[in-house]
Sequence to fold (466 residues):
Amino acid sequence: MIQNSESKTEYSKSDDIWQQGNLVEIDIDDLTDSGDGVGRWRERVVFVPDTVVGDRISVRLVRVKPEYAHGKLHQIIEPSAHRIRPSCIVADKCGGCQWQHIDYQYQLEAKQNQVIQALQRIGGIDNPPVDRILAGDSDLGYRNKATYPLAISSATGQVQAGYYQKGSHQLINLSQCPTQDARLNPLLAEVKRDIQQRGWQIYDESRHKGQIRHLALRIGRRTGEMLLTLVVKDWKLPGMKAQAEEWLKRYPELVGVSLNRNGDRTNAIFGDETRCIVGKPYLREVFADLEYQIRPDTFFQVYTETAEALLQVIESELHLQGDEVLFDAYCGIGTMTLPLAKRVREAIGLEVQSEAVEQAKTNAELNGINNVTFQVGEVEKLLPQLDVKPDIVLLDPPRKGCDRAVIDTLLQIQPQRIVYVSCKPATLARDLKLLCQNSEYRLTKVQPADFFPQTAHVEAAAFLVR
Ligand SMILES: C[S@@+](CC[C@H](N)C(=O)[O-])C[C@H]1O[C@@H](n2cnc3c(N)ncnc32)[C@H](O)[C@@H]1O
Fold:
């Protein structure tokens, strides 16, 4: 029997046990989209983080409602066959990953099911045509980007960087993270020591005081080039240039050090303005055999290799003839627009972040791709105004999915094919339901992909034909 931090085990068999603080014994038989295990106690549902299907556990009830409760794992009575020892020593506390205790093959199975269930339950699609999930070669060391909040240890006064504890804003101090590209680890361990020595103030979110909020690291997986960015409350950081030069000398693969200013009381990490202090404001990366420049503050898929594999599926599924007009809505820095532009007559990228669009244009120029244009703005506003009719629309919205106006416009302009890339199955299913109502579109294939091993997140591309 594996003991959790609490030690006492007392069970009541009666119904009055359904109260906060009490212990119940359950079997975990499902996982939620957010990664929690799900079990039942006398017809009532209990959600328990850090568990997996097949675990028999005792759980302390935390937030109790008449029909369901959230609980905290108290004791593993019988571990599931899918339970493994996490690779990370702080996995049980750190909010960065939810699934380090689950073997990777089962993570993939659970993600595949997450997509199928969302399409069935929310999308109303009986037998969704879901292919086997795509996975990269490694379930660790894959992240090309890491963004760490900073804090001061109340015990030692030392600068700390890491991830927040599950469900809180208490920081877990890390000197390495097994999911990030290992080449970034030395910077994580050492940069906070330099910040300490400079005497720079760490931002305190409760008082909105202090200066440095986050340390952001990014690496080009193919080139090894790295960027270091400090997110600050305002620009004043005495000695920053000298420190940035020292970092550039110390880490040969580091090509640029930047500051990003975020002066707001917000949980958003980056603010609107980024200034390069020394070196270059971007790193170079190779993706789908094209060269890209990637800035510190624009979107780029975190698992480069699996994103590339998904793009290959999209390319082959579209059977491009070379005479198509393609819209890439939510195009970021043109990561998918550019390889697809090479295979069609004309491509138009739509993106709200002006820095990303600037970068997308530069990336097109870098690769000599001149049948592509980019427009800055919200897809919901731009799409109805375009006077070109697309044959194919690629959608890749954030987690909240597409604005209703985007779906309505698509149903009006009726592209022959739609490819919907999504990082949240629930909103994908909601939007597919709208697109497929009245049989306007037929769903031909859904390709899940694991862009975030060790977490409950799953990506999926859905293919629709009119
Ligand atoms: C999931 S990322 C996809 C980026 C790109 N397709 C890629 O593969 O790198 C979503 C992008 O949509 C942009 N975005 C978010 N809301 C938007 C909106 N309403 N209109 C246009 N772009 C938006 C974000 O800035 C981000 O670049």
